[in-house]
Design brief:
844 residues; four-stranded antiparallel sheet; 20 strands; Bact_TGase-like; transmembrane helix
């Protein structure tokens, strides 16, 4: 039996002498350190949207973990995609360990930990959506900031260190500035731009020094460097531009409140910092009031307890809640001029002057009491809409102290019972309602069956929302037990805060064709010396019902238990004391019997503790899973497009006689050590991982377990092909880099190519015998046979001459053989998914 002769001892070691320790430190540590420092400096821009400095500590820890992970893995020559995945894993461990308490061994993710993390991120997005910058640095916000900047750190580290393209990181860092600049109403602090610019300049300087030290090992410009190698940094920058623009668009789509009136979801108003209120209600919301901030100081009300209205909502979206209409607000009239009479105000009632001093109020809305007649101290850019009863402007801004001349007159029960609503007196939008669950309509009809006029019907619905009927005021809604949020609240959960109570009553009134809307504003506040103090915790929602010549009349169905609720005279029992509007206590009015449900109404079913298939029902707003899936999809498309583009360039270069390898995706010059081209060589594998992630997130929207099973199945199916591709990439890189092992790598790759095609060649065969079998079995054409002869010649010289140098003809000859194999003996799909070269190696 003929065996391969042993290789002679090496004659000399062509490896360059080790670099001095200082140069080694600069080359291996300084670059990732500069990348991390640039990320932290760019993250300081978040001071414009997140209060305090606690978040900076989390950011620094995340960046240090990402940088150290990359430094450690690159020191052992770990492939770039594996380094990136490891950095993501380390970031995940940190997030799970810090922001959840359900991780396996505290830091490892599991279904429970991911579920809790989903809730945390949902709370963060809700706080962003409903809060005004700078938002409080709550745990959900800290978690979101840590994840976002951690991912930025991974991307910057990859571009600056692995791809050696620090200039491309400028686009990524610019996106970090774009997010707070888009959300904040003030100019970002000047020093954060100075820090970012200095850090980016330092990153470029570090890379420039590193390139200068390696100049002797590089081709000088114009001395043979291939166009493909020069185009690779351009491709990296182009990809970074696309990803940066897409990421900026996705992230800045997460808006804050105080949109322009009628601007819909997409319109953001500018202005300055402060607090405002959110122009929508949510049937499945959670009330997170955060810290208690003083908003208004009110003088002139005396002992009266009135609701302060900011704006009204007239559009109901099933299973979501109430919102502003999708059309622009009416033109309105200047608010600094005499105002047109509000509906129901005939001008005969006494006027009251109320002084309102905003303290931390910033919004497009100027809250008012009752029926406003005149406003003083108001700038010309404020307008009054008679239909909605709102005072608004086109740009969110701090509001100066103002005075309101208003009528606070309240009608009597008898007046409301005889009020006749003419069809042309009120806009049809106030009775418009999409089809509701039949159970809600049935309940509404049962509650109001004995009533003969709109006031008594509205009062009957108002009386239904009491503790006697099982309703509880709480800052958290009951777990979802029904697919329809409104039905779930009315018949099962019965727990929530003002948004749920007001939303439900407004819908029930429209079921009866009674004009109604939801008002957003504030409760009465608390006495404080010569004024009443209204804080952020007084934010409230209630219902306004239209009664013809009496105008819009307030009904507050929320059973508040802290004395903040207001019960007007027309809703009190006939034997209750007369006088100004009183407040409710203990979750019910002065006389509890006044809000008992009408007799004959069946007791609604109690909430099911575990209604299968519904307990996990979530609001149909896209959460973090949808956003993450969208980002993964965009990245997968970008990686796929980049891989196809670079592969086509490699094929054109190869067809023109160039020295680039088609599948390796790296040119001869780049193979000498350019990390940028090494990154492009791994793009197909990165694209596959991103597609897997996108599919997993899409499946997660349907079922968490489905996503897990699908990812496990796809990962298991793709693991053999992935491992085979990783081994192939290592060999191709060695060949293109002219390493001493290039000939052996080329030969073993050709043997594995034969095995994948179902014709394994025993290792005991001589090179010439094996080459003859390879050419015969796979019908190599002339180019393939010529290339194979060159490969065998280089291999034999390597084995028998003892030299460590590699012939420059090896790489193109090797590619000629592979192209001939692909033309004349393509690998089947089974051979690609289950490569026999890998499986046979495992069996041995």
């Amino acid at each position: 039996m003929t065996t391969t002769p042993p290789r002679p001892a090496q004659q000399h070691d062509p490896t360059p002498p080790p670099a001095p320790r200082l140069s080694l430190w600069r080359g291996s540590i300084l670059a990732p350190a500069a990348a991390g420092f640039a990320t932290v400096c760019a993250a300081t821009s978040l001071t414009g949207v997140v209060s305090g400095a606690a978040w900076l500590g989390y950011v620094i820890v995340a960046v240090v973990l990402v940088g150290c992970t990359g430094l450690a893995l690159r020191s052992i020559r770990t492939p770039t995609p594996v380094v990136g995945l490891a950095q993501i894993a380390v970031l995940t461990f940190m997030v799970i360990g810090v922001f959840t308490d359900r991780g396996i061994a505290a830091i490892f993710p599991g279904p429970a930990a991911f579920s809790q993390l989903s809730d945390v991120l949902t709370s963060a997005f809700e706080q962003i959506r409903t809060g005004l910058p700078p938002v409080e640095a709550s745990p959900p916000i800290l978690c979101l900031v840590t994840i976002a900047i951690g991912l930025v750190a991974i991307l910057v580290d990859t571009l600056a260190v692995a791809a050696a393209a620090p200039a491309a990181t400028g686009l990524v860092l610019l996106c970090v500035y774009a997010v707070p600049a888009a959300l904040s109403d003030n100019m970002l602090p000047w020093w954060t731009f100075l820090l970012g610019a200095a850090a980016f300049a330092a990153l470029l300087a570090v890379d420039g020094n590193h390139r200068h030290r390696r100049w002797r090992t590089r081709d000088a410009p114009g001395t043979g460097t291939s166009p493909e190698s020069a185009s690779t940094p351009v491709a990296v920058v182009a990809i970074a531009v696309v990803l940066g623009l897409v990421a900026g668009t996705v992230v800045t789509a997460v808006g804050t409140v105080s949109r322009l009136p009628g601007a819909g979801r997409g319109g953001l108003a500018g202005g300055v910092g402060g607090l405002g209120v959110n122009p929508f209600t949510n049937l499945r919301g959670m009330l997170d009031q955060g810290s208690n901030v003083e908003l208004f100081r009110v003088r002139g009300l005396g002992e009266d307890k009135r609701l302060l209205r900011a704006f009204t909502l007239d559009t109901y979206q099933p299973n979501k809640g109430w919102s502003l209409p999708g059309t622009p607000m009416p033109a309105g009239v200047p608010a600094n001029l005499p105002l047109p009479a509000a509906p129901g105000d005939d001008g005969t009632s006494r006027s009251r002057e109320i002084q309102i001093e905003p303290v931390n109020w910033t919004d497009v809305w100027m809250p008012v009491y009752g029926a406003p007649r005149r406003l003083t101290g108001v700038a010309p850019n404020w307008f009054y809409d008679q239909t909605s009863g709102s005072v608004y402007t086109t740009k969110r801004q701090s509001v100066a102290p103002y005075s309101e001349i208003a009528s606070l007159a309240e009608p009597s029960k008898d007046d409301l019972r005889v009020s006749d609503v003419k069809p042309d007196e009120v806009s049809p939008m106030y009775t418009r309602i999409d089809p509701v669950d039949p159970r809600v309509a049935q309940l509404t009809q049962q509650i109001t069956a004995r009533e003969s006029n709109n006031f008594d019907r509205a009062s009957a619905i108002w009386r239904y929302f009491t503790a006697q009927n099982g309703f509880t005021y709480d800052t958290q809604t009951a777990p979802a037990a029904d697919a329809d949020a409104l039905t779930d609240f009315l018949l099962k959960g019965k727990r929530g805060f003002c948004e749920q109570f007001a939303s439900a009553m407004g819908v029930m009134l429209r079921v009866l064709k009674i004009p109604s809307r939801v008002a957003i504003g504030f409760t009465t506040g608390v006495p404080n010396g010569d004024h009443r103090t209204i804080t952020s915790q007084d934010a409230h929602a209630w219902v306004e019902v239209y009664f013809g010549d009496r105008g819009w009349v307030s009904f507050d169905p929320t059973p508040l238990s802290d004395g903040r609720g207001v019960i007007p005279p027309y809703l009190r029992p006939d034997n209750s004391p007369t006088g100004p509007s009183a407040s409710s206590g203990a979750g019910q009015p002065t006389n509890p019997s006044s809000r008992q449900a009408p007799t004959g109404v069946p007791a609604p079913p109690t909430a099911s503790a575990g209604d299968p298939g519904q307990a996990g029902q979530q609001d149909d707003e896209p959460g973090w899973v949808g956003i993450a899936g969208l980002i993964a999809l965009v990245l997968a498309l970008a990686a796929t497009a980049a891989a196809v583009l670079l592969a086509s360039r490699g094929r054109r270069a190869g067809g023109q006689g160039g020295n680039s390898t088609e599948d390796a995706g790296i040119s001869a010059n780049s193979a000498r050590g350019s990390p940028a081209n090494g990154v492009t060589a791994w793009l197909p594998l990165v694209a596959g991982v991103l597609w897997l992630a996108a599919i997993g997130f899409a499946a997660w929207l349907l079922s968490g377990w489905l996503a897990i099973v699908l990812i496990v199945v796809l990962a298991a199916a793709g693991t053999p092909a992935t491992l085979r591709e990783i081994g192939r990439r290592r060999r191709l890189h060695a060949i293109a880099a002219h390493s001493p092992e290039a000939a052996d790598a080329a030969w073993h790759e050709l043997l594995d190519e034969c095995a994948d095609r179902g014709t394994p060649i025993p290792s005991s065969e001589t090179a010439r015998t094996a080459a003859q079998k390879l050419a015969t079995e796979h019908h190599l054409d002339g180019d393939g046979r010529d290339g194979l002869r060159t490969v065998v010649g280089v291999l034999e010289r390597r084995w028998y001459s003892g030299t460590e140098t590699t012939d420059a003809t090896l790489a193109p000859a090797f590619e000629d053989v592979r192209r001939s194999l692909r033309r004349n003996a393509p690998v089947s799909w089974k051979g690609r998914l289950l490569p026999k070269s890998l499986l046979n190696r495992f069996r041995r």
